[in-house]
Amino acid sequence: xxxxxxxxxxxxxxxxxxxxxxxxxxxxxxxxxxxxxxxxxxxxxxxxxxxxxxxxxxxxxxxxxxxxxxxxxxxxxxxxxxxxxxxxxxxxxxxxxxxxxxxxxxxxxxxxxxxxxxxxxxxxxxxxxxxxxxxxxxxxxxxxxxxxxxxxxxxxxxxxxxxxxxxxxxxxxxxxxxxxxxxxxx
Length: 186
Ligand code: XMP
Ligand code: MG
Description:
The chain is of the alpha/beta class. The chain contains three helices and nine strands. β2, α2 and β3 form a beta-alpha-beta unit.
């Protein structure tokens, strides 16, 4: 599939699975006491569409405590490979998160601008707590320091695809994370 387009595999399918299980155990341990007493206190996972959809579904299945699944779609003005920090909501939450323990589930933190905006926006809705889990982070690309409690992998500052991440809507369906061969951009 996608012969020749992927120049190297950065994170294998197995590494994704192991890390997801590890993060889920860590989150379950941290939240077990907070979300003990029933439906109204279930953890709320907010997946950011579309990139986080694979991680969101695998993470939710690996998580041994009850969690509710919500999705948001945002779009950052700017080119297809870098964001500007000016964000528009394409799909908002269906529910109120006031008083709820909320965990944002992200695919990747690049400059941090999108997430920084999202944290500010969600904070105004008065959740009981608000944290972030991200599968990937590019430490060398950070423009704004956002507090991210759970990080899967720190990766080099290269454009990556697969496992939800796309280039022009392709490659999201790959089960691993890889770097795109420069010939694809040309
Ligand atoms: P910022 O820069 O605001 O960007 O942290 C976050 C969003 O930009 C997308 N993004 C990528 N998408 N490969 C992708 O397919 C990448 O290497 C990459 N880097 C950033 C992504 O949607 C992320 O949520
Ligand atoms: Mg994203």
